[in-house]
Amino acid sequence: MVKPPNIARSKIYILLTIMSWFALLFVDLVRIFGEINQMEGVIKREITWILEIIFFILLYLFFNNSINKKENSNFLNLIWRAASTGLIATGTSFLIIYFYYILQDTRLSDDPLLRNFFYHVNFALTAIFLISTALLWKHLILYQKNKAVVQQWQAYEVILLISMFFVLINQESFNYGFMFGLIFLIIYGVILSVNLKWIPYLTFREKWKSILFLAIIVFSTVYLLVQLVSYTQKNVHFVNLSENLFLLGLFAFVLIYAVFSFLVTLFNLPTSSVFEQKLTEAISFQKLSQSIQPGENEDQVLDILMDSCMSAAYVDAAWLDLHADEEDRRTGTVLYQKFISNGERQEIMDLLKKTEPFSAYLKSQTDARIEYLYGKISHEIFQSVLIMPVRANKKILGDMFLLKEVKDGFNKEMINIISTFVGQTSISIENYRLLNEAIKNERYREELEIAQRVQRSLLPSALHHNRCFEIDGFSAAADEVGGDYYETFRFDQDNFALIIGDVSGKGTSAAFNMSQMKGVFHSLVQLNFSPKVFLSKANSALSRCLEKNNFITTTYYTVNTKEKTIHFARAGHCPTLYFDKGNNTCRFLDIKGMGLGIVRNDTFDQYLEEGTMVYHPGDVMVMYTDGIVEAKNKNGEEFGYENLRLLLSSIYELPAHEIRIKIIEEVYSFVGKETLPDDDYSLLVIKFKA
Amino acid sequence: MLSINKASERDHLVIALNGEVDASNSVELDEVIQEAIAENAHKILLDGSELEYISSAGLGVFMSYLEDFNEKQVTFVIFGLNEKILNVFHILGLDQLISIKNTREEAEQALYEA
């Protein structure tokens, strides 16, 4: 609903209500005037009743509209509204009495028209009070409503509506029909009046106030009832508006609910402090359970813990002793010292260290199983002590010391609620730490992904070759990043360099060394050294930058497709597998060699050998890293050199690309799906064609 | 899974490796060798007969002490390696730098002749 039409509607209601009242007044005065002057049947009395019904309905609609708008006003305001309306109605009635007191002996005091005018004023105010109060009661009744209560109330509204029209059917007052209707309304009012769920939510002060307001309402209701009835008895010429089932039913309902509320509130007074305490505990609990936001620290939740525990158990003094923790900067500090001085705290600590059962715990602090320690001490002020360890991630974060001035100050319920608070705090802190850790890990993972991308880019996406040979490569890392490396270089149309390498270790450190290797390769390759010289220069360069226990194995090849020669030297790398088509043999090119970085001086080249060979079309050269031959299946068996050799012997006729795929497939199927590769796999296959 | 046993015999120290040396436990091996050097052992015998696997990180440990052995004139002899591991040493070229013998007797002989 948009607002503007709403405001307009309430104004229209006011206007219509006032108009209906004036119309009622006018009609009734004319009727009385006619009655006095014996002019029968000028206006039928039915018109009075219909106007009265219209007046009631408009009032009802107006208050329903205006009270619904103030949905969020609290109970005390609602009751005060009813009480103030009652006071106004009562006050006005007193004024009228006072007015007649002044007019006592004048003729005017006997004038039936004036008397009827005041009667109408009284009636209007009473109706306003009753209807508005009934609608306020509706609000209270429907607090924490369920379907049944809503239905009951709706039925009551329908009954009230019917009761308005009762007067049209049953024109004689106080006959059996009327009495039956009234008793029914009263019983229904009683049934509705048991809905008093709002009362426990009042604080102690609010309860006192509401008792006062309710008393005013009861008083006003009774007074107004008596007042209206007294009019009936006093006047000869009189239009009776109050002998209306609706009005009397409302009187009954308003009065019954007010009396019920009054009594229940009164009897709730002694227990209200307990209820308030429980409510505070629930709120504390909720505060504790709201996890700390990342970026904030844990102090806040510890502070809430202390306050909650202190208020829950009426604690006189407390402090929190955080244990020394190498990860935490607040080592062994005392936090949140409340209502106790440093001196007193020290005094009590010394005392506790001498008193069982605390002494054993405080001295060793190894027994992490203790949930709480409770006992008495002989101190001049404090008589009972509760020590509650606060845990997080299965470690004791610190101890909470709670002191009370009375003996046996902590009962089972208090200890229970405190340990619940402590448990909730632990969960909050754990969640907070886990969250922080998760964020940190997420960042590491991202970094690692970047490293992975960078490292991927270190491996060549295309390998140099010419029409004389095919070449195909593959590399997979066991971790996010790996230490395997291969690359090609083209000197000219017929001359190529190839390298394959494996950095010791795996993971990030291997990846860094691998990128160094790449740098070394690119600087040295351009100088076109022979393989042996190349490796000894590479050794000398890497010896300066590799860590003491790191080394790199590699094989370096130069290929001349014009002369069909291969020169190579092996720096501790797995021997190349070579298939010789002419002899139909498959063998490993095992020449002497030494890993780079193992011998870090000039003697290195004496451990090297250089191999030279002539290739023929159809020959296949397979370069690989140790991950391939050392790949283990779930029984711990290695793939091995012999398997690789036999495999190549059977697939040498395939193109280089397919040989590569076949070998990788075989290795993976050997390893099996259940075992994760624990080393990097790299493979480079060359097939000579011309 | 690696267990390392260190024992003194006559004039020499015997370090026996049992199991697999990989990146995760190569530090243990490193510590034992470092300890031996710190104790001024001049003759070290490494019993590899129960060694099942050694990764590049494990080889890196031996490699990193070669210089120290030379400097302090420590004789370091390995014996009892199985074929597979021997091949690993061989491929890397470490057999050119470290004395590797088949049996304990040969190893002890090499130790006391040097």
Write a concise keyword list for the protein shown above.
heterodimer, A: Beta-Lactamase, Phosphatase 2c, domain 1, 5-stranded antiparallel sheet, 15 strands, elongated, B: 114 residues, alpha/beta, 5-stranded mixed sheet, 4 helices
List the helices and strands and how they pair.
The complex is a heterodimer of chains A (690) and B (114).
Chain A: H1 3-36, H2 45-69, H3 75-102, H4 112-141, H5 147-169, H6 176-192, H7 204-234, H8 245-268, H9 272-289, H10 299-312, E1 317-322, E2 334-338, H11 342-354, H12 358-364, E3 373-376, E4 384-392, E5 395-404, H13 412-458, E6 469-476, E7 484-490, E8 495-503, H14 508-525, H15 531-545, E9 552-560, E10 565-571, E11 576-580, E12 585-589, E13 610-614, E14 620-624, H16 626-629, H17 640-651, H18 656-671, E15 681-688
Antiparallel strand pairs in A: 1-2, 1-5, 3-4, 4-5, 6-15, 7-8, 8-9, 9-10, 10-13, 11-12, 11-14, 14-15
Chain B: E1 2-9, E2 12-21, H1 26-38, E3 43-54, H2 56-71, E4 75-79, H3 83-92, E5 99-101, H4 104-113
Parallel strand pairs in B: 2-3, 3-4, 4-5
Antiparallel strand pairs in B: 1-2
Helix pairs in contact in B: 1-2
- Structural domain tally of chain A: 3
Widest beta sheet: strand line-up of chain A: 2-1-5-4-3
Sheet having the most strands of chain B: 5 strands, mixed
What is the name of the CATH superfamily of the largest domain in chain A? PPM-type phosphatase domain
Q: What's the structural domain tally of chain B?
A: 1
- Structural class by secondary-structure content of chain B: alpha/beta
